[in-house]
Design a protein that fits this description.
69% helix; two-stranded antiparallel ribbon; single chain; globular; mainly alpha; 20 helices; 1% strand
Length: 490
């Protein structure tokens, strides 16, 4: 997919001399990182650490144990692949050493599969090299397709997440195709969401490789086929659209929540329309209104309707992706309005053609729900209360902590951190807002804090606040994963 970089935002071309070619043409001339941002190499380790922290939990879903180990090993392999890739980019080495290092990620991943899961060497080699090769190939294509949109580390996190989702879907294909299997509500919703997002990614791939689908008529035909496939593919019994309607009608509260969500969407449209009528960029405090709206959505959902929020977050991701495709592909009649909204609400981190901030806001709040094994397990109330804080990682760090830091820091910040625009006052506001929110959860009985848990949460909060104050990476993406990984040990 060819993209155009805005001329007002100069981009950094990464020196990648010597990288082995896995795409079309030498990547050394095509990889363009996000301007005014450091490479962020360390971000490639976040998802592997988060998945590894899941293994410390007493897993209530026995069938998920092997899957979690497999995904964790795959994440570690992608991390090693990223580190080797960065080595190619920034260090001049001999051809022999490059060839040796090129095989390290696949061999290391194979060894982990063999030792930890007792897989055969042939199957381990297949998984190890396919995982690392597909990851590197996709990573380079994403950096080429959206030049200037991501730092090297941000792209690593997003591509790792995409590859782990597709890998997880492939592992569960036997369960997905067995439509007659008796499933719980959450398992049913999980199957629907995995298939729906897989179809959506396939559509994105078609739009990237075939220009004909970017014409208005073919674009909407493709979207219609996508909607039919998502709602009518016989992966559940009854078909997904009927299964979803039955799920919603089981609880009258869900109908009220849908009406509430529709009202919030309408309010969001009004805010965007109002802002686009004004000239210039939206201020930081105006942009934080979206953080407030997502808090209003996620807090009651996580506390009372976890299953419903899970599927709703997938629907939200699909809708944002649809509107972004309309904007990037210039599909009328919404393309002009979406471009105006992007111009008004984008900030310095939305430097490329891709609108990174809204995606990362949704992904950051939803990621703890998506990567946690059996997140909506509520058969045992005490078990669920123990998982509330990790599941709230996105809301606590982005919705409360980051919002408080931005508002207080921009208005009252006087003492600046070295080499950062952030202030000490904003960091303190982050810590106080996050800890106060957790204390409220404890006071109302949604979690049960002990001395050890309180200590771990305090450490996680302070560590996340310090990262927020000193990093130039997308905090909507990085902060929830850091906080989740630390508090997950409790």
């Amino acid at each position: 997919m060819k993209t155009v970089i805005p001329q007002q935002n100069p981009v950094k071309r990464t020196n990648t001399k010597g990288i082995s070619d896995v795409g079309n043409g030498p990547p050394s001339r095509d990889i363009v990182s996000r301007p005014i941002a450091s490479p962020g190499h360390w971000l490639c380790m976040l998802l592997p650490l988060a998945f590894a922290s899941n293994l410390l939990q007493n897993n209530r879903c026995n069938e998920e144990i092997t899957t979690q180990f497999t995904l964790t090993i795959a994440a570690i392999g992608m991390c090693v692949e990223s580190l080797c890739f960065f080595l190619y980019m920034f260090y001049k080495t001999s051809l022999l050493l490059k060839l040796v290092v090129a095989f390290v990620p696949g061999l290391f991943t194979t060894l982990l599969y063999k030792v930890l899961l007792q897989l055969s060497w042939s199957y381990g080699l297949f998984l190890g090299f396919v995982t690392t090769f597909c990851y590197q190939n996709t990573y380079i294509r994403v950096m080429r397709g959206f030049p200037g949109s991501f730092s090297l580390g941000e792209a690593a996190v997003l591509v790792q997440g995409l590859m782990l989702f597709l890998f997880n879907t492939m592992l569960k294909v036997p369960n997905i195709v067995n439509a007659t299997k008796v499933r719980s509500d959450f398992e049913q919703l999980n199957v629907i969401m995995m298939c729906a997002l897989s179809y959506l990614f396939a559509v994105c791939w078609l739009l990237a490789v075939a220009n004909v689908f970017r014409m208005k008529i073919y674009f909407y035909i493709l979207m219609l086929l996508l909607a039919i496939g998502v709602t009518c593919t016989p992966i559940t019994k009854p078909i997904p659209i009927i299964a979803l309607l039955k799920f919603i009608r089981k609880d009258e509260v869900r109908i009220k929540i849908i009406m509430f969500y529709v009202a919030l969407v309408a309010l969001t449209v009004v805010i965007v329309w109002w802002r686009t009528q004004s000239q210039g960029k939206a201020s930081t405090r105006v942009r934080k209104l979206f953080h407030l709206l997502i808090v209003i959505v996620y807090v009651p959902g996580l506390l009372y309707q976890c299953d419903f929020l899970y599927i709703a977050s997938g629907v939200a991701l699909a809708l944002i992706t649809f509107f972004e495709l309309v904007r990037i592909c210039n599909i009328p009649p919404l393309d002009v309005h979406l471009r105006n909204a992007f111009a008004s609400f984008s900030d310095e981190k939305d430097a490329g053609v891709f609108a990174l901030t809204p995606f990362c806001l949704l992904i950051g709040c939803s990621l703890p729900l998506w990567i946690s094994p059996c997140p909506c397990y509520q058969d045992n109330t005490s078990s669920y209360t123990n998982r509330i804080v990790p599941l709230f990682s996105g809301i606590l760090t982005i919705g409360f902590g980051d919002t408080a830091a931005s508002v207080i820091g921009s208005k009252f910040g006087r003492i600046k951190w070295s080499n950062s625009k952030k202030s000490l006052e904003g960091t303190l506001a982050f810590v106080l807002a996050t800890l106060s929110s957790i204390l409220c959860l404890n006071c109302f009985g949604f979690t049960n804090l002990t001395l050890f848990k309180s200590f771990v949460i305090a450490v996680a909060t302070i560590a996340t606040a310090l990262v927020e104050a000193n990093t130039d990476q997308i905090d909507n993406l990085t902060l929830p994963i850091i906080f989740y990984t630390i508090v997950n040990i409790i």
